[in-house]
Amino acid sequence: MSITELLSAEDIKKAVGAFTAAESFDHKKFFQMVGLKKKSADDVKKVFHILDKDKSGFIEEDELGSILKGFSSDARDLSAKETKTLLAAGDKDGDGKIGAEEFSSLVAES
């Protein structure tokens, strides 16, 4: 499944474009702009599985660093600081990665 089957390509382009500057990423604004916040819980989980590149059932720190590329292949990587901030916001159980439920909560809090 492609991310554009779940989210508008135009919304993705605008959201990715809004965070092209280094250290500008704000996951709450991004999830709202990309339209993820308005999606059903099932669709949010589908997006999680697309972003879980290694299909481990978790989005690990290295996958988080390239999370924008999961939405658009020409997007930038997050900085180490942005990645750690995103991980801290989403990793509720402290295991160093974000599971499907944690991702759903992260989107819902946006």
Automatic annotation (TrEMBL):
Ca(2+) 1 binds at residues 52, 54, 56, 58, 63. It comes from the Eukaryota. Residues 39-74, 78-110 form the EF-hand domain. One of its GO terms (molecular function) is calcium ion binding. Ca(2+) 2 binds at residues 91, 93, 95, 97, 102. Keywords: Calcium, Metal-binding, Repeat. GO terms for cellular component: cytoplasm. Transmembrane segments: none annotated. InterPro entries: EF-hand-dom_pair, EF_Hand_1_Ca_BS, EF_hand_dom, Parvalbumin. Pfam families: EF-hand_7. PROSITE patterns: EF_HAND_1, EF_HAND_2. In muscle, parvalbumin is thought to be involved in relaxation after contraction. It binds two calcium ions. Belongs to the parvalbumin family. This is Parvalbumin. It comes from Chrysochloris asiatica (Cape golden mole). The gene is PVALB.
